[in-house]
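This follows on from our talk about sequence and fold. Can you supply me with one protein entry, sequence and fold together? Could you add the entry underneath, on a fresh line?
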Amino acid sequence: MKSFLHLQKSRTYFLLAIFFLSCYLLLLPVAAENAMFRANPQHTGIFENGGSEPTNTELWRFAMGEKVSIVESTSGLESSPAVSDGVVYVGSHDKNLYAIEAITGKEKWRFATEDYGVYSSPAVSNGVVYVGSGNYHSIYGILYAIEAVTGKEKWRFAMGEVESSPSVSDGVVYVGSDDGNLYAIDAVTGREKWRFLTGDQVFSSPAISDGVIYVGSDDGNLYAIDAVKGTEKWRSKIGIGGEWSSPAVSNGVVYVGSADENLYAIDVVTGKEKWHFVTGNQVFSSPAVWNGIVYVGSYDRNLYAIDAVTGKEKWRFTTGSYVSSSPAVSDGVIYVGSGDGYLNAIDAMTGKEKWRFATGQGDRSSPAVSNGVVYVGGNDLIAIGQLSSSGTSAISVPTIRYIPSSDTSNSDNSQKSYSLLIVIILIFIGGAGYGVYRMKSKSSKNKPPLLKNYIAQPMQDRIPSPQGDDHKVKISDQFNSVPVPTPKPVLAPQDHMQAGKIHSTKSLSHHDVFITYSNKDKPVADAICAALEKHTIRCWIAPRDVQPGEDFPQAIIKAINGSKIMVLIFSSQSNTSPHVTRELTKAVSNRVVIIPFRIEDAPLSESMEYLIGLPHWLDALTPPLEQHIDRLIKTVETILNQRE
């Protein structure tokens, strides 16, 4: 009787343990469905959760704050929508990131960026939205991490202008910048892991496959970069510059469009070209890859379907205008916008039109498909699909997922470890284990209370440390001791301009000259900086001398406060740049000597006339530039000698 009571007590303890563990798993946070530009880290453009085929019926339309783009487009949106767990996230020229209910089109929240428009497309991973911002003709930009539910900022990382759309994989955010770098940022902390410098601006969005990052640069190269180390594996010449198309990776091949009017297929291992396909105009559209076919748009008004292996054309669909929008694939249908203000639905196998919808706006934003609805941006964000008889769309309820301690998300949807399934498995294992225990208990003469001993005895006493207590590692110590690369100071900008090197810079502790310029004049600014520092005149120039993760505006103010001279690279771009104006205003208030170096004959704006109307100008309107830089060096040396 005593053994029977002991057995019943042990069984009760065991089942209670299973019950409480099950409750714990069920109460774990719900992980957000991952979403990003081009649907997945490989950028194949395949929307697996597209659901049933949408119809050309407008469900709702959400009006953005700014109707007209500042570029040559009537579109208020260039950011492409990302859909996660029933919410659509999209950026706008009006300097906001919006979260909109996918069914109703009602705003949940908006996040205001700091004086920067949002041209980057958001990525959503583990309940956090990552998006970049930045203004045209500016050298400043920020990558934000924002809570998907509340819209509250988690962290920000300052860099050059961000038009590249971030990709997230294995707890790291990868994004390009107009400062020429590809950045790898820790998704949780916002700390820089590494940066890779290309030869020019990076508008292209990085694709990720098998531990390698693929990204294009305006220097005309496609780069393959080790995702962990940030080192170059290879580069392939794919064009003449202006590479805005983002690569797609499928079956060992990288596909990417180019401003030289070609679509390229590059071997992922060797970086060698397998084939190229010639269109009739520039290819800014990012390719989609599905069922052995590559789909890509061109400025020649066509959407092309090309055999992924041979590079031969299978069909083409002619629209009414240019196609810079990137095609989305769902359930055998291609969705792509065109410059004549239509969203086109095309049969992926035959190239025949299924339907088209008049959006009445441009096509720079690319469509996203989720649960029977197509979301596309322009002046407004539009949801196109079909409502069920109950008055709601076919959008499904989010699935409960277990969130691991670190981000292990990838394109294979590795987070499909459902809590309910885990509970069922645990109960099954518990029942089987208890059955085995009963059998052993009956067959044993002594019937030791094994279960009671196991629960009562501390686990650390059962697993002694082989090296003693002094060598035990605390979990908190492991997380607090994650190594962060120590930035190395670099004095000359020519060191930074070597494409293919990793650069982590540190602000100069002392400098004499602050160089202010528009991003479009960066080559001239770099040349001046190199020449001055060659003559031992120390300079501060952004973004080179901003520490990784440092607050950009704060770094600017600190640098101007420590300067004796400000060199202004004056052009039509800097003449209208609000950031250059702010820097000049700060320099004037600090009584810093301003030397305008004019490289373009442009009339002064009212702000510029107020700030620099009186100082002596150094004109550099006639070639060669070097002789004007020599004059500048002598002028700077003279002023510095006078102030010592």
In short: The first strand starts at residue 58 and ends at 63. Residues 58-385 form a domain with the Methylamine Dehydrogenase; Chain H fold (CATH 2.130.10.10).
